[in-house]
Amino acid sequence: MQNFDYQRRTFVMFGRGRENEAGSILKYEGARRIMIHYDDASHKPDLFDRIKRSLDRAGLEFFVFGKTQEIAWADTVYEGINYCRQEHIDAVLAVGGASAINSAKAISAGALYAGDFWDFFSGVREPVRTLINGAITTSSDTGAECSAVCTIAREIDGKLRKFNKSSPAFLPRFAIINPELSLSIDNKSTAVAAMDMIAHVIECYFTNTPNVNLTDELCEGILRTIINTLPRTIEDPNDYDARANLMLAGTLAQNGMCGLGREADWSVHVLELELAATYRTLRGEGLAVLIPAWMTYCLKHNPMRMAQFANKVFGIALNYDDPNDTAFKGIEALRVFFHRCGLPQNFFEMGLPMVDVVKLVESLHLKDGATIGNYVKLDSTACESIYTLAYTYRQTRRLLPHYNV
């Protein structure tokens, strides 16, 4: 196990009706003038009425700032920073999913910085001080409410580019997680959101760091929980307990605990980011196609590691004489699970009948032996192989009927 530093200051308030306590926690944090920042999906009149009544009871002033889209755009952050300065805002309350929470993180840091907030993402400066910031999550995908990572997008040369910055300053002071707020989310959005959780755990799970048994167990437990509860949620969108477990899994998947003391990979995220930048695809769908392709390519690196995944996550009997067989069955079980949840199996099912794999690889700029990832160092040839596997995969056996999404 490697040395590590870990601190999370976020106070989590979980359960039914906890959004009614937003005013009391903001007052406790010392806030007086609050900017409510929300995304389109979260703007429900009944929810906003409850939040506003809570702020009123606490004697706080509040202002509502615009909407964010499915992605946290840099332009929205600039507007939010200006709004905070004009209205003398001292606290930002994000309401929604990852887009609202990420843009709120950047706004709260940029409002107290004399320069351009983009300095944080270009490596010029580190964020130090922020406005009081909190989050009310309305989606099971989030994880951003307890994550030190902030993701902001901007368009460069006609391509959507996402930039990540990790800093303790971005951690929200508090997070309110009420699974009831996610009951209205449609099945497709729920399935796509779960993919982000799975990807974060898998990128930590497949590591070359030895003797990380405890975080192995944590990763495996989170994956089993998602695999068991996502179908329940799709079959009955009003199943509170399934939603609750799914939302908590999202928080634990992305709060940094899965990566403690171990080297994470992150190559699948890089491959998906390039796919999304070029073809404007849904993040979750891209991950559903690329993860099994990446696992297939990496199988030969450490068959026992992949076999352990199959055994601990899907309960497949471990074949000690041929761990490759167990590993392959685990990858196929993951594909079956994705298919049952209505997720695509290849680029064609994502709505991409024609994909220029060579162009995708060139856009990664892996020249002169450059690589991505840590579990297996992927050069341009390896990345081309993974994209090709994702493009050409065909179901070799009859899969279970997928759920209606």
Task: Give an account of the 3D structure.
There is one protein chain. The chain has 14 helices and eight strands. The strands form two sheets. Strands 1-8-5-4-2-3 form a six-stranded parallel β-sheet, with helices on both faces. A two-stranded antiparallel sheet has the order 6-7. Mean pLDDT is 92; it is low at 397-405. A hairpin with a 2-residue loop joins strand 6 (149-156) and strand 7. The chain has helices at 22-28, 45-57, 74-87, 98-110, 119-122, 187-205, 213-235, 240-254, 267-279, 283-298, 303-314, 323-340, 357-363, 380-392; strands at 11-14, 33-39, 61-68, 91-96, 132-137, 149-156, 159-166, 174-177. 48% of the residues are buried. Helices cover 46% and strands 13% of the residues. It is of the alpha/beta class. The longest helix has 23 residues, at 213-235. The protein is globular and about 70 Å long.
Topology:
Layout: E1 11-14, H1 22-28, E2 33-39, H2 45-57, E3 61-68, H3 74-87, E4 91-96, H4 98-110, H5 119-122, E5 132-137, E6 149-156, E7 159-166, E8 174-177, H6 187-205, H7 213-235, H8 240-254, H9 267-279, H10 283-298, H11 303-314, H12 323-340, H13 357-363, H14 380-392
Parallel strand pairs: 1-8, 2-3, 2-4, 4-5, 5-8
Antiparallel strand pairs: 6-7
Précis, in short:
This protein is α/β, with parallel strands linked by helices.
The topology string of helices and strands comes to EHEHEHEHHEEEEHHHHHHHHH
Name the helicity range: 40-55%
Strand content: 5-15%
**Major β-sheet, in short?**
6 strands, parallel
Structural class: alpha/beta
Global Rg: 21 Å
Low-confidence regions: 397-405
The N- and C-terminal alpha carbons lie at a distance of: 41 Å
Number of helices: 14
- Total beta-strand segments: 8
Mean pLDDT across residues = 92
* Strands side by side in the biggest sheet: 1-8-5-4-2-3
Shape: globular
